[in-house]
Design brief:
The chain contains four helices and no strands. The longest helix has 48 residues. It has two domains: 57 residues, no CATH class; 51 residues. It is mainly alpha-helical.
């Protein structure tokens, strides 16, 4: 004889918060979440599964220095990335010099106007 085990709703803080927020922001979403929880689902498991899925899909995009398995491509990529980093640094320095020059010009203009006003 076979028994079917029916899972009942687990009212964890995450489930309660998800249902409440679902009803607050968009009532059909709250209704769907409520039915999911009543059918035995756990919202925190859904969150963890989706987080694992995203980290699997994104993979090592955060660390650009991972190996691809092809030494020639890795060397080319490393050289290109270091060149781009140097260009970014040079551009940042240029923008800083430009900002300082503009600030100096504005200050000189202010001082000239002030001297004319005092005289």
């Amino acid at each position: 004889m076979s028994y079917c085990h029916a899972e009942t709703a687990r009212w964890t803080p995450a489930n309660i918060a998800a249902v409440a927020l679902g009803f607050v922001f968009f009532w059909p979403a709250g209704l769907l979440i409520l039915f999911y929880v009543l059918s035995g689902g756990d919202v925190s498991k859904v969150f963890h599964r989706s987080k694992d899925w995203v980290s699997e899909k994104v993979g090592g995009m955060g660390s650009a220095r991972q190996t691809s398995g092809n030494a020639a491509f890795d060397a080319y990529r490393d050289e290109t990335l270091s060149r781009l980093e140097e260009e970014q640094r040079a551009f940042g320095d240029f923008m800083e010099r430009l900002k300082r020059a503009r600030d100096q010009e504005e200050f000189d203009r202010f001082m000239a106007e002030r001297r004319r006003g005092d005289a």
